[in-house]
Amino acid sequence: AVLLKLGGYGIIRITLMFTPLIELSYPFIILALWGILMTGLICLRQTDLKSLIAYSSVSHMGLVVAAALIQTPWSFTGTIILMISHGLISSALFCLANTNYERTHSRTMLLAQGFQMILPLMAAWWLMLNLFNMALPPTPNLWGELMIMVSLFNWSPWTILITGFGTLVTAAYTLHMFLMTQRGKLPEYFKSISPTFTREHCLMSMHLAPMLLLMFKPELISGGF
């Protein structure tokens, strides 16, 4: 989560050093947009929970790279917002995936279902973060993705087809991740599952608090350009 966002920050810093040469960046923009679709479709086929979250981050970084290469004020602002907000969400999802792994010793979603019945508070965290990952209003993810999509549409109207389909795929694999981990019947071979710990809820709260701050004070990260 952190390294991917630092890479996006590096792309922004480098593109600001050069005169805008959009023609030279066409192949990279096309690859970034194509990567959004490919990684999203890969997420739909994933059975490994941590791999799904990792590919989800790569899919969001496709938007970041494409927006950074366009080099407009709106695209840079949307890139910064999306990197910060998704960095927090991705880190929190990895933490939740680790809580599941500590109890099941497996990252396969097919072998670890039905946790909502025995860990309802953890299921609430899963639901909240999955909604954030889907860019539910008024989360910073929504503002970042909207600014990037508008910038891409102004650059080329055809990009709305790719970004729109990518948004639908994101919603699909996010709901798939929640349903596979929280719904369904708990496997019978789980004889005993440890309850949630205070440290786990504190960790989730530390991820959620900055997101709530950015929701109420978006100018903290939206006025850089």
From TrEMBL:
The chain crosses the membrane at residues 24-44, 51-70, 76-96, 117-135, 155-175. GO terms for biological process: ATP synthesis coupled electron transport; electron transport coupled proton transport. One of its GO terms (cellular component) is mitochondrial membrane. It is an enzyme of class 7 (translocase). Its main location: mitochondrion. Residues 1-168 form the NADH:quinone oxidoreductase/Mrp antiporter transmembrane domain. Its EC number is 7.1.1.2. This is NADH-ubiquinone oxidoreductase chain 4. Core subunit of the mitochondrial membrane respiratory chain NADH dehydrogenase (Complex I) which catalyzes electron transfer from NADH through the respiratory chain, using ubiquinone as an electron acceptor. Essential for the catalytic activity and assembly of complex I. The keyword Mitochondrion applies. Keywords: Electron transport, Membrane, Mitochondrion, NAD, Respiratory chain, Translocase, Transmembrane, Transmembrane helix, Transport, Ubiquinone. Belongs to the complex I subunit 4 family. It is a multi-pass membrane protein. It comes from Plethodon neomexicanus (Jemez Mountains salamander). It catalyses: a ubiquinone + NADH + 5 H(+)(in) = a ubiquinol + NAD(+) + 4 H(+)(out). InterPro entries: NADH_UbQ_OxRdtase (IPR003918), ND/Mrp_TM (IPR001750). It is found in: Mitochondrion membrane. The keyword Mitochondrion applies. One of its GO terms (molecular function) is NADH dehydrogenase activity.
